Amino acid sequence: MTEIRMKVNGSVESLDVEPWVSLLDALRERLGLTGPKKGCDQGACGACTVLADGVRINACLALAVQYDGREITTIEGVAHPLQEAFVRHDGFQCGYCTPGQICSAIGMLAEYESGMPSAVPESRGLDEAQIRERMSGNLCRCGAYNGIVDAIKEVSG
């Protein structure tokens, strides 16, 4: 067992974990945070997306011990205009992917504002093609992509 300390949603948490425990399992099973979902457990769906020091990551691919001393934000710790925009634009149906979608969108907006390039050539600001490309790591089995894009476009101004 290894003792780790991390700030999770504003609270310092101390955990004893085996070195092979994923950050997702530590958050869900040790801290009871059920927002990040275990969808594929392979980093392919984005349902487990959280923010680590403000950067979006797939928690299923990260080892908890890697995040000792870091700040983790899950959907439970988010207060962002995107949440209301998702509701206004029907950016979810079943809601399973929504926590990961929102955390990913927050991280994506920060990446965009810092000048991180996209595979889609930029036209004028963050357009639909840019949003779809930048959010391509998050899947929605219900197909709520149009609402998700509309919510992000609204918040990005």
From TrEMBL:
SUPFAM superfamilies: 2Fe-2S ferredoxin-like, CO dehydrogenase ISP C-domain like. Residues 2-78 form the 2Fe-2S ferredoxin-type domain. PROSITE patterns: 2FE2S_FER_1, 2FE2S_FER_2. InterPro entries: 2Fe-2S-bd (IPR002888), 2Fe-2S-bd_dom_sf (IPR036884), 2Fe-2S_ferredoxin-like_sf (IPR036010), 2Fe-2S_ferredoxin-type (IPR001041), 2Fe2S_fd_BS (IPR006058), Aldehyde_Oxdr_Iron-Sulfur (IPR052914), Beta-grasp_dom_sf (IPR012675). It comes from the Bacteria. One of its GO terms (molecular function) is 2 iron, 2 sulfur cluster binding. Keywords: 2Fe-2S, Iron, Iron-sulfur, Metal-binding, Oxidoreductase. Gene3D superfamilies: 3.10.20.30, [2Fe-2S]-binding domain. Pathway: Alkaloid degradation; nicotine degradation. PANTHER family: OXIDOREDUCTASE WITH IRON-SULFUR SUBUNIT, OXIDOREDUCTASE, IRON-SULPHUR BINDING SUBUNIT-RELATED-RELATED. This is Xanthine dehydrogenase YagT iron-sulfur-binding subunit. It comes from Nonomuraea thailandensis.
